[in-house]
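Encode chain A's predicted structure.
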Amino acid sequence: MCQEFEIEIDEKIIPQIAFYFAGGIGNSGSVCGAVIGAVMAIGLKKGRAGSMEEMLGNLAFAREFRRRFEEETGNIDCRELTGIDLTTQEGLSELMSSDAANTVCYPAVAAAYRIVVEMLKV
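Encoded structure for chain A:
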């Protein structure tokens, strides 16, 4: 991560925190874990708002991240991005036998990372 955005967190816990974002929160097909992680990074960087005006600005910032991610990837939901229903055994099997990780998931993570870093540089 860019040095300007480093946050004091024990890096050993990050994989534990992020693991259950997989498959759109526990393979439910909901919001892409990369989106959730990026929004958490926004929260860590911006912190809690001190006023209503600041809170509304911070919420608009997160909304803008979502807009940019969705514009680039087409959706924010794992099920829509992958085209696979991960709530079924058939869907999980399809995911494991497909190239979705390389063609959808890794690019989504890269897009979320790039967008959030660009936005936080401002």
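The chain has one domain: 10-121.
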